[in-house]
Amino acid sequence: MNLVGIGYDVHRFIEERPLILGGVEIPHTHGLDGHSDADVLAHAIADAVLGAIGERDIGHHFPNTDESIRGISSLEILRKIAMLLGQRGAKLVNVDATLIAEQPKIGPHVGEMRANLAEALGLPMTRVGVKATTNEGMGFLGRREGIAAMAVASVEQPETA
Ligand code: MG
Q: In the list 4, 11, 100, 154, which could disulfide-bond 148, CB 3.0-4.6 Å?
């Protein structure tokens, strides 16, 4: 059967931290705050994949109280979730995500993000969508307080699983 999942995440900008999106370090005045590398794009995708197989969210599987995963690469989180998917007898079909940020410019990095995410998820790059938009200057995203991401995932699972 075909399953779908949805994911949303947001992280706050802070100074003196690298900005990691889709596993790419993007030169910027601010990075994102978080227990892991704060890769908001990878986190939204992680929750979409977990949701598709009826699992609890990324915060449950990778709690911010776990010191052993402080600063962990979120691509590593995606690799672990892809393994969990395999253990459930499920197969990821595709993921699609949108970043919402006023800055920095995402476009020049989309190719590398898709390649990183595809590798971590065991998907061809054509099955990994990464898009970006601004929030038209409105609200907390418009005030450049952080970056948000939303994602969907499609999973194929045998009826028996
Ligand atoms: Mg997060």
A: 100
